[in-house]
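Report of the visiting student (M.T.), summer placement. My assignment was to run the structure pipeline on a short list of targets and document each run. The first record concerns SsrA-binding protein.
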Amino acid sequence: MSRKKKQERFKEVRNSRAHKDFFVDETLEAGIVLDGNEVKSIRQGTVQIGEGFVRIDKGIPILYHAHIAAYAFGSQASHNPYRPRRLLLNKREIRKWEQAIQSGGRTIIPLRMYFKKGLIKLEIGLARTKKQYDKREDMKKAVDIRETQRTVKHHL
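After the run finished, the structure tokens were exported:
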């Protein structure tokens, strides 16, 4: 008799501010180096990546300002919630994105954190910041879409 596979609970954390504040040009999937208690904390869903950003220091991509809360059932000596975490990427990808950042006007931001085959992955994006008039334009489009949906709904 075969055993039933235990389905892993899927948790995903999205950066809700990413597409409001940035134009995302490219995306990549990166591995992330974590401690054991951090993984348990992420499984509980106590992660915030909205304030996070990625910087490439000496050819090593590092995630800064991502908050992974201390594991509730861990020991007293738990990790620092805001510590810098190393990302795992291919050297060719690192060099390509480093050149894009140095050319100016771009930054790397985390878009979402998720599980893939039992491993925690971070989707990062190469992005340009939106100006205030771009944000106003997006708000106008959203209002127009909402109004058209209302009129269609009331006429049916």
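Strands lie at 12-14, 22-32, 47-48, 53-57, 60-64, 67-68, 85-88, 107-116, 119-129. Residues 70 and 76 are 10 Å apart (CA to CA). I thank the supervising group for their guidance throughout the placement.
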